[in-house]
Amino acid sequence: MNLVQPRLVGDDPIQSSSLFELIANDVIDKGFSIRPYALPENLTDMLLQHITQLPDDYFKRAGVGRAKDHIINDFIRTDEICWITGNSDAGSAWINWAGELQGYLNKRLFLGLFSFESHFSHYAKGDFYKKHKDAFKGEGNRVLSVVVYLNPNWSAEDGGELVIYPAKSSTSDIIDESKVTVTPNFGTIVVFLSEEFPHEVLPALRDRYAIAGWFRLNTSIANNIDPPR
Ligand code: OGA
Ligand code: MN
């Protein structure tokens, strides 16, 4: 019996599409997907190297809300973020990978994902992000959230777990109380429907690096352009 989880290698298009297929099936079955050791190792390495090289002042305190409603709130979240652009090799490799996932999920799930935005996040010791949703029904913006972790050798004592709370069922009054806890380990990918799942980041007890990204619908109408972010 092989207890070691096979590593999905993303350079190989066949294996990469088998990962995308697993993610698609998870999203269909449960609305979320948790895949350990899934992001291609060379990409995860590049991203970790890049993030540790970024000057500290590239990271800004993360706020809550968009544009004019953006506020810093120490009670909700205390992490720092840096938006990812294609201006670095690591950033553009990541954006390409996310684009392939987007294309696959659009073909498979007809989600109509149109654009992608993502940032690095850094939680220093003690940092957290209280229970929240990434999007609210009717706002028609963020459809699918993706999180990947860049922390080699994360252990149980390091805290910083992602807790995903069950979605409220529209067909039943019974709420499934089972929450899911994810260790922010190197290469783990989490994908979930942004409007459905409240989630939180428990206080990290050491530096915790991740990427959080969102696929959005095209919500531009006529001259009212609504770009990401
Ligand atoms: C977020 C978020 C989860 C994580 O940035 O919105 O929920 O595990 N991140 O970092
Ligand atoms: Mn979130």
Per-chain topology:
Layout: H1 13-30, E1 32-35, H2 41-53, E2 60-61, E3 80-83, H3 89-109, E4 115-123, E5 129-132, E6 142-149, E7 162-164, E8 180-182, E9 189-193, E10 199-201, E11 208-216
Antiparallel strand pairs: 1-9, 2-3, 3-4, 4-11, 5-10, 6-9, 6-11, 7-8, 7-10
Helix pairs in contact: 1-3, 2-3
Bound molecules: N-oxalylglycine (OGA) and manganese (II) ion.
Characterize the structure shown.
With 229 residues, this protein is α+β, with helices and mostly antiparallel strands. The protein has a single domain (13-216), classed as Jelly Rolls (Sandwich), CATH 2.60.120. The protein is 23% helix and 24% strand. It is built from 3 helices and 11 strands; from the N terminus they run H-E-H-E-E-H-E-E-E-E-E-E-E-E. A 7-stranded antiparallel sheet has the order 1-9-6-11-4-3-2, with helices on one face. Strands 5-10-7-8 form a 4-stranded antiparallel sheet, with no helix packed on it. The termini are far apart. The structure holds N-oxalylglycine and manganese (II) ion. Residues 132, 134, 199 line the site of manganese (II) ion.
* Rg value: 17 Å
- CATH fold topology: Jelly Rolls
Output mean pLDDT. Answer: 88
CATH superfamily: q2cbj1_9rhob like domain
| Beta strands, count | 11
- Segments where pLDDT lies below 50 for 5+ residues? none
Bound molecules: N-oxalylglycine, manganese (II) ion
Instruction: Give the overall silhouette.
Output: globular
- The tally of domains stands at 1
According to CATH, what is the class?
Mainly Beta
In which order are the strands of the major sheet placed?
1-9-6-11-4-3-2
